[in-house]
Design goal:
single chain; alpha/beta; Rossmann fold; nine-stranded mixed beta sheet; two-stranded antiparallel ribbon; 13 helices; 13 strands; globular
Length: 452
């Protein structure tokens, strides 16, 4: 999740992180690596793991960046530079529809009152006259990205993964979901902080039917809060295919990745789990971004919900308050319909999850706690993934919330790699490296899934 995008506020955050993180600077003697590797039952996962040399090593940040808060400093500095430098995306806009009351189920009728426009940022561009980006075509594999809390294509957080995938021949499509496109306020009083499955499905079919060649391999990548809609969508799509058969018109992905998910969205943003100072900073940030700049259209629909959102003292209170804008009468109904852990067990798409023991925003205990869902029979999410067909979770000792810095130069400096887009150097994020290895491996091992 991005902390603050404006330069002046970013500087203030960096100073705060430095002050907050200095005192435990060298309190750990851990040598990095992998703390846990959980994998499902499909024997083909052995082949995937063998093709991912970075998976078993795990990141080890430079000694002066072992602290989970200090790891944000070089990460944020690079993000700011990359944001200014930019990526030459192709911008497309897509009109999406939605139900007035989603508690009625997935078969509720769309209401014109909830129609809005989302934007897709595509790199390299899908332009048949484009000759700059050699090696790409309308059949090049596509990664669909769902960014973090209030993020967009220039800051998901960060976009080094876009650059790295470009260097490996993968095209990226970033979905700037409702309320996330910069300078584009909401037209309708509908947005979901964690993303919307019907909007994602409409986007999938737009890409599949109008933009790319038949049988183009497609992947789904969620970052931070963007992981929730990814998990919910896969559970719904895979279950639909399981019930109705392979011939159904159901979105299908070769594989998927979730970076630093929080699992149970009814708890993940509590101050005890999403820690100080990030909860405080982001609570005000989402109020400003989603409520204040859209206040007129939101108040016309539900003024008490706006008041409750503005009075929220932490992020979980905020999510509870804005349930009516996600299409539900209250927070209880919202979590019944939207919590990604509800149907986690239904996912059959190859799925890699990356978490870190030192994540200050998505506490690692989230992974190992018992599910509250009756269908899960008291099992932890870690157990459920170990019993899944193609799920895999890797837990690192270090990584914080998204940076996953690795060290070079005898462990004294962040490891860097060449930027495939502009040249120069960029941080060698371990999570980026593992993501590329996983997508390349699954494209080879599970290539048949592109034809579903």
């Amino acid at each position: 999740m991005v902390l603050i995008t404006k330069t002046t506020k970013t500087t203030a955050v960096l100073v705060l992180l430095l002050a907050y993180g200095l005192y435990p600077l060298l309190t750990t003697t851990n040598n990095g690596g992998i703390a846990d590797l959980i994998r499902g039952t499909d024997p083909l996962l052995d082949n995937i793991i063998q093709k991912m040399p970075s998976l078993s090593k795990g990141p080890l940040p430079p000694i002066f960046l072992h602290n989970k808060h200090l790891q944000f400093i070089p990460f944020l500095l690079q993000n700011e530079y990359h944001r200014i430098q930019g990526i030459p995306y192709q911008r497309l806009e897509l009109e999406v529809t939605a139900c007035l009351d989603k508690s009625e189920g997935r078969h509720c009728l769309p209401s014109p009152l909830m129609n809005d426009t989302i934007s897709l940022d595509i790199f390299p561009p899908l332009n048949k006259n484009e000759t700059i980006y050699t090696g790409f075509s309308d059949a090049s594999p596509i990664i669909i990205f769902m960014p973090g809390l209030r993020c967009h294509s220039m800051d998901m957080p960060g976009n080094s993964i876009i650059r790295r995938l470009y260097g490996e021949g993968f095209r990226s499509v970033v979905i700037n979901r409702r309320g996330h496109t910069p300078t584009q306020p909401l037209r309708a009083p509908r947005w979901n902080l964690f993303g919307d499955v019907p909007d994602l499905e409409q986007t999938y079919w737009y890409i599949r039917k109008q933009l790319v060649a038949p049988d183009t391999p497609m992947f789904l990548h969620g970052i931070s809060s963007g992981t929730a809609v990814v998990v919910s969508a896969l559970a719904e799509f895979d279950h639909r295919r399981d019930v109705l058969g392979e011939g159904t018109t159901t979105p299908s992905f070769v594989a998927s990745i979730s970076i630093t998910p929080g699992y149970d969205t009814s708890k993940v943003l509590l101050p005890t789990r999403f820690q100080f100072p990030y909860n405080n900073i982001l609570t005000q940030s989402v109020k400003d971004h989603f409520i204040i700049q859209n206040e007129v259209v939101l108040r016309e629909f539900n003024s008490p919900a706006v008041d409750a959102a503005l009075q929220a003292t932490h992020l979980q209170e905020f999510v509870n308050a804005v349930a009516p804008f996600s299409g539900y009468p209250n927070s209880s109904s919202y979590y019944d319909g939207e919590n990604p852990i509800n149907h986690l067990h239904r996912i059959t798409t190859p799925k890699l999850v990356i978490n870190s023991n030192d994540d200050p925003c998505c506490h690692i205990d989230n992974l190992y706690e018992q599910s509250s869902q009756r269908a899960h029979q008291g099992k932890t999410y870690a157990q459920l993934i170990s019993e899944s067909l193609r799920g895999m979770v890797v837990v690192t000792h270090f990584g914080s919330h998204c940076p996953f810095l690795d060290s070079g130069y005898c462990g004294l400096w962040p490891k860097v790699v060449r930027d495939p887009l502009y040249g120069g150097w960029m941080l060698d994020s371990w999570a980026d490296r593992v993501s590329v290895e996983y997508y390349k491996a699954t494209l080879e091992i599970y290539s048949h899934r592109r034809y579903y």
